[in-house]
Amino acid sequence: AAGVARDGAGQLTVQGIPAAELAETFGTPLLVVDEDDFRARARAFKSGFEAAFADLCGGADVYFAGKSFLTLSTARWAAEEGLRVDTASGGELAIALRAGVDPAHIGLHGNNKSDAEMLDALTQGVGRIIVDSVDELRHLAELAAQHGLTAPVMLRLTPGVHAHTHEFIATAHEDQKFGLSLAPATGDDDGNVTGRSPASVAVEAALAAESVELIGVHCHIGSQIFEADGFALAAQRVLAFLAEVRDAHGVELAELDLGGGHGIAYTAVDAPRPPAQIAAALAEAVRAATAEHGLACPRISIEPGRAIAGPAGLTLYTVGVTKTVDVDAPDGTTAARRYVAVDGGMSDNPRPVLYDADYTAVCANRAPQATPVLSRVVGKHCESGDIVVKDVYLPSDVARGDLLAVPATGAYTHVMGSNYNALPRPAVVAVTGGAARTIIRRETVADLLDREVDPQDPAR
Ligand code: LLP
């Protein structure tokens, strides 16, 4: 994050607050969020995309993808910076609403929304419901009709673009659960051979349903994407589809959401394109495709999550046990690897074990003076896969009581945390104006016990 530096004594600081002071005040593991950095990244997306699309379609809307790091505070920061908020469940929707986000500026996603979630969105006046299948479209139309309401719908399309990223988070190729394919299907959901694409079947059904207002289409090609070409190709394909819709039905849909997925640097080898460059390349692709098809440019929106929240966070851990283990080097010799165990792990950041994600770590409470040695930072869970940072050079004298900081942990950590091994989840603190305050309190073992229904304790 922008506010991270080293002070005169070599200690890591966040907006001038020493790491040791944060650890002392709030405990560890601790997720520290630089609020100013979060807000600056939100603003950069907003201004970058607004500028790139100003001439073409009067600007662009940016939704903060709540799934990456949704709390009352982050939702408010996003909204205060002029962003809208994307939600993926009734729980996320409740957080965004409680934060005071204008319902008209909230989107509801999900490939399997419950009736309660859909009804909640309809009655609360959520601005966009992103529909994922023909089945869901029909069901939502029925629900809305039963309640005398109109569903504001975006259809999520799969343009068949393979984002160059980890397979589990690449979502716009064909054989996966999300979206409506643009490719003709061999059979529809009822088993009839139609030769039509699920996307065109859904458009027809949406236009025919009186309780549905079809606002536009959506696509999301994956996550942690560094280059603009995948986004541009998806935009081209979806715009070609909008031209087909116009030719078949005589309607030009008003909006096109190009999803999230903008990548960040977790380690020094990562070099994602800055948002403004992605915006410029996308605007060029949209300009060319709309000209080719004679379409008016739809209103463009995007949904970045990681690229706003990720770099703004860092996790502070306290070192416990260290040990050195012999490993077989590729050249047949034996080398040593230092294991540095910290007081958290896969329960506060499951990304290394789930996606083989790389992070780095630095010694945070003092200047790193001793010789750097190849180290592996591990957690305290009962699994050998419980790795925080696979390979990192840490000073050889890092020892019990030292603090380690793992940067870029704002996204998909707090929201994916668990209580594995009955570890209470860490606190989250926000730093702004040189002061830190708790935004999520640390969980306690009492919180965990509180959910137990104990048959041996009649008092409960
Ligand atoms: N919009 C939609 C429809 C999405 O499915 C996602 C992410 C986003 C926006 C935001 O993507 P972002 O800008 O944050 O990349 N847990 C995984 C990431 C899963 C992303 C799922 N969808 C991870 O930790 O890498």
TrEMBL record:
The keyword Nucleotidyltransferase does not apply. Substrate binds at residues 306, 351, 355, 383, 412. Pathway: Amino-acid biosynthesis; L-lysine biosynthesis via DAP pathway; L-lysine from DL-2,6-diaminopimelate: step 1/1. CDD domains: PLPDE_III_DapDC. Its cofactor is pyridoxal 5'-phosphate. Residues 56-309 form the Orn/DAP/Arg decarboxylase 2 N-terminal domain. Pyridoxal 5'-phosphate binds at residues 261, 303-306, 412. It is an enzyme of class 4 (lyase). Its EC number is 4.1.1.20. Belongs to the Orn/Lys/Arg decarboxylase class-II family. LysA subfamily. Specifically catalyzes the decarboxylation of meso-diaminopimelate (meso-DAP) to L-lysine. This is Diaminopimelate decarboxylase. The gene is lysA.
